[in-house]
Specification:
seven-stranded mixed beta sheet; Rossmann fold; single chain; binds S-adenosylmethionine
Amino acid sequence: MSSSSAPSSGRWSLPVEDDWSTPFAEVLLAQLDLRPGLTILDIACGHGIPAFYLAEQVGPTGSVTGIDASRGQIASARTIQRGDLPWLRFECLDMRALPASFPTFQRITGNLSVMFLRPYRFEAMRGLIEHLEPGGQVVLTFPSLGTFDSMWQRIDQEMSRHGLTIERERLAAHVAERPSAAEARGWLERLNMERIAVVERPLEVASGSGQRFLQHPLLRGGFLDDAYECFEDAGLADEVMTRVSMDLESMTPLLAQRCALSGWKPVKE
Ligand SMILES: C[S@@+](CC[C@H](N)C(=O)[O-])C[C@H]1O[C@@H](n2cnc3c(N)ncnc32)[C@H](O)[C@@H]1O
């Protein structure tokens, strides 16, 4: 967490070696009005991107609370923290069901968070906004609809070649489940938020072919799993996915859409 990257500042800059969370966090920070003294809730904080950076920026007159549903992630965050930045604390909590007694904050951030608000994303968003102070800003990022479309199309083509109707339907459902930038904007509009801004910034992900593609830590940890889950026959899944992995050229560039969603809660509701 201590190596330098843009935006850089002190000890707790975003880690340059992280080629997924950091590029999304950069889009988040570009939207965020960040100043010393603010109180911030960072949802789906994982092991602290960008909670550590935010805590350093708000300083001791502010506070940052990072929450995550995974005990392991919270334990990692606390290990990294090692008692530093005492105005930053980490708590194991489900962001979709915050207790009514949970405080309100001047900012709510969440890097790579929106997809995990499922299944009732709008209701989960409404619950979060209840913990945003009037006049406060929310900024959340997620890989929006369109992410890795070239890969989904190539997998679909290969499924089609094999005559796999049910698998194709399941794949289409997985892809469609990803929220779009427009859908996310609609949630904030329905919540009467002001100064809504939704940006999408492409991010090219480099991946080798064959096993390097299939075992790519980013793709395997979620995106490719969605494709494998479409099959009941594991052998068939391996055959289809191996063919896909050998045809990297048709999927390049492999682009993710870094979507950042920002809005301000009206001072008077
Ligand atoms: C892709 S990681 C992002 C972590 C960090 N913000 C980053 O940018 O590296 C998503 C995180 O969301 C957490 N998560 C998933 N569902 C959640 C929920 N319902 N409530 C809180 N955290 C959740 C996961 O445990 C995981 O740490």
